[in-house]
Amino acid sequence: MNIIEAVKTRRSIKKFDPNHTLSETQKREFMELALLSPTAYHIQPNRFLIIEDKALREEIRQFAWDQPQITDSSLLLVLCADLNAWHADNVKKSWQSTDDGVKQWILDHVKEDFENNPQHQRDEALRSISIAAGQIMITARAMGLDSCAIGGFDYNDVARLINLPENYVIGMLLPIGKRIGDPYARHDMIAYDEAVKINRF
Q1: Quick one: DSSP state of residue 37?
Q2: Which alpha helices (DSSP H) does the chain contain, by range?
Q3: pLDDT tens-place string over residues 147-183
Q4: What is the distance between the alpha carbons of residues 114 and 120, in angstroms, rounded to a whole number?
Q5: What global pTM score does this model have?
Q6: CATH code (residue 143)
Q7: Which residues constitute the domain of residue 81?
Q8: Number of domains present in the structure of the chain
């Protein structure tokens, strides 16, 4: 499937085949593609948690309005980000093969943008998660799979269940798998001219 077809046919799927599985090789390939999503200054704050434990999935489902995608999907991801990814030691890992001049320029600008600015730290983390989520969903569709981004859950309870580190933030849950049946017809889209403006609103 080409990328344009994947974008056009991607839907939020609620019913997955609970018997469909992905091999460890498929999961690894999938997650390596997810890691290629872009991030500001290449600081790579995204952290992807794969939930394989069935009992844990059941617990998470109870804090997610009992949505069946949580337990029935082939792969359940919790998309998170490290709010401290901008710290110098972390940034150096992302730029370790770069010459010292460029590395120092990056370190200086990252510090200037992020230090003493917790709102920007959180905003950038959530932007990175969102970019990754879009890339993951299109990748899934291109591989003949489907997905459903979920924001409807109790973040605090899920954070407790997965032992979320204090400096991490959860962006969304993302089940991926094989759809059962056809999705509902696509809802009405707002008019192009309402959504797209030129230069100024």
Answers
A1: S
A2: 3-9, 24-34, 54-62, 69-72, 88-94, 100-114, 118-142, 155-161, 192-195
A3: 999 999 999 999 999 999 999 999 999 999 999 988 8
A4: 6
A5: 0.94
A6: 3.40.109.10
A7: 3-195
A8: 1
